[in-house]
Amino acid sequence: MKKEGTIVVVDDNRSMLTAVEILLNGIFGKVVTLSSPNRLLSTLREVGADVLLLDMNFSSGINSGNEGLYWLSEVKKADPQIEVVLFTAYADIDLAVKAMQRGAADFVVKPWNNAKLVATLQAALALRKSRSEAKQLGDIKRSFSPESSENGMFWGTSPAMQRLRAIVEKVADTDANILITGENGTGKEMLAREIHRLSARKDELIVTVDLGAIPETLFESELFGHVKGAFTDARTDRAGKFEAASNGTLFLDEIGNLPYHQQAKLLTAIQSRSIVRVGSNTAIPVDIRLISATNRDLNRMVAAGEFREDLLYRINTIHIEIPPLSQRTEDIVPLARIFLKRYAAKYGKTCDGFDDGALEKMLGHDWPGNIRELQHTIEKAAIMADGDLITADELLISRREGNAAEQTVATTTLEEMERSMIAGALQRHGGNLSAVAAQLGVTRQTLYNKIKKYNL
């Protein structure tokens, strides 16, 4: 039997401590004994105890159990997760009930039966692990907050998107693995969330993992979790993204960026629908709906030996390709209006449309950055806008000039736009900071900090 967990035993009877220590050394990974509760709280912190076996009476001639109840309360204040089993020489059922109400895991009567004592303490350790993992998994799940309704899928009216929508509505309610491909900025994650929203798993989480952003050394820990002591910084057991997504949807973004040697580990988890945490040998079943996405040509990568063919077959039961914005020009202006409404509200502007010059400029641009580029362009225009309509001059679209070998791109960052906006407001109000702050909707201190930042 593998020894695991740390237990602290507190009793003023030293011979009893010795007997319990000998018994438990074959069960727990670490056994710490104390003959007095005076250093109990500091000891629990130092050793990272999982279970506490606590005597209920320490003072000679006193057998009320109040001392044990007091220390039970103090321990639970310091560490609500620790499991406490109480030791007493008096089989007092009322005291047992009172102790359980205050958070004790169980109650053992002296003289004890070895098998029963071990079973009680092992059950307490299992309860500790279960509660700890549930809390940790709950923390992970809460970190994946639902997207706001304003970020929902925009289907538009283009024939390409209507065909895509028909496919999505057919496959969303199944558990088929889906591979979404498309250029950067086309909305692959948004589509994944829409598929999840239309699925039978919609009331569970969709957990997103950017495989291109995970360091190679943390890949297994992030996806599959780890157990305490698996590596230097593994101070507690930790669930991975597969467990967090169980019963829901796991979205693996940028799957084409996954190094070849790690693809086999991912394939094993997908095939077996189970994971093994780093440092453990125990398989944990997971129930996920898998959606993957990439902007790379995985078939070409397979031919070049850069992507496993068997993994590709596993992830693309259904393949959906999102068309670039240049192939759905009917959707450019409706999307722009959605973004303008959002950013006009955010920046306190009155603009609610585009003049003819701005519309012509938007429709004449090829939008190589797709929806993401359009969104950023409209945000900058909303910041710069002075009137009710966005003008062509306020629509600062990146310009591409020259041939392919000598192509240059003129861009304006949000910081440059902010500096220009503040400088213009300062000039209009003759340096009156209160008036400028009121116009921009910021505090005087924030405005002052921005002026210092931009050397205005």
From TrEMBL:
<keyword id="KW-0067">ATP-binding</keyword>
<keyword id="KW-0597">Phosphoprotein</keyword>
<dbReference type="InterPro" id="IPR001789">
    <property type="entry name" value="Sig_transdc_resp-reg_receiver"/>
</dbReference>
<dbReference type="Pfam" id="PF25601">
    <property type="entry name" value="AAA_lid_14"/>
</dbReference>
<feature type="domain" description="Response regulatory">
    <location>
        <begin position="6"/>
        <end position="125"/>
    </location>
</feature>
<dbReference type="GO" id="GO:0043565">
    <property type="term" value="F:sequence-specific DNA binding"/>
</dbReference>
<feature type="modified residue" description="4-aspartylphosphate">
    <location>
        <position position="55"/>
    </location>
</feature>
<dbReference type="InterPro" id="IPR003593">
    <property type="entry name" value="AAA+_ATPase"/>
</dbReference>
<dbReference type="InterPro" id="IPR002078">
    <property type="entry name" value="Sigma_54_int"/>
</dbReference>
<dbReference type="GO" id="GO:0006355">
    <property type="term" value="P:regulation of DNA-templated transcription"/>
</dbReference>
<dbReference type="InterPro" id="IPR009057">
    <property type="entry name" value="Homeodomain-like_sf"/>
</dbReference>
<keyword id="KW-0805">Transcription regulation</keyword>
<dbReference type="GO" id="GO:0005524">
    <property type="term" value="F:ATP binding"/>
</dbReference>
<dbReference type="Pfam" id="PF00072">
    <property type="entry name" value="Response_reg"/>
</dbReference>
<dbReference type="InterPro" id="IPR058031">
    <property type="entry name" value="AAA_lid_NorR"/>
</dbReference>
<protein>
    <submittedName>
        <fullName>Transcriptional regulatory protein ZraR</fullName>
    </submittedName>
</protein>
<dbReference type="Pfam" id="PF00158">
    <property type="entry name" value="Sigma54_activat"/>
</dbReference>
<keyword id="KW-0238">DNA-binding</keyword>
<dbReference type="Pfam" id="PF02954">
    <property type="entry name" value="HTH_8"/>
</dbReference>
<dbReference type="InterPro" id="IPR025944">
    <property type="entry name" value="Sigma_54_int_dom_CS"/>
</dbReference>
<dbReference type="InterPro" id="IPR027417">
    <property type="entry name" value="P-loop_NTPase"/>
</dbReference>
<keyword id="KW-0804">Transcription</keyword>
<dbReference type="InterPro" id="IPR002197">
    <property type="entry name" value="HTH_Fis"/>
</dbReference>
<dbReference type="GO" id="GO:0000160">
    <property type="term" value="P:phosphorelay signal transduction system"/>
</dbReference>
<dbReference type="InterPro" id="IPR025943">
    <property type="entry name" value="Sigma_54_int_dom_ATP-bd_2"/>
</dbReference>
<keyword id="KW-0547">Nucleotide-binding</keyword>
<dbReference type="InterPro" id="IPR011006">
    <property type="entry name" value="CheY-like_superfamily"/>
</dbReference>
<feature type="domain" description="Sigma-54 factor interaction">
    <location>
        <begin position="154"/>
        <end position="383"/>
    </location>
</feature>
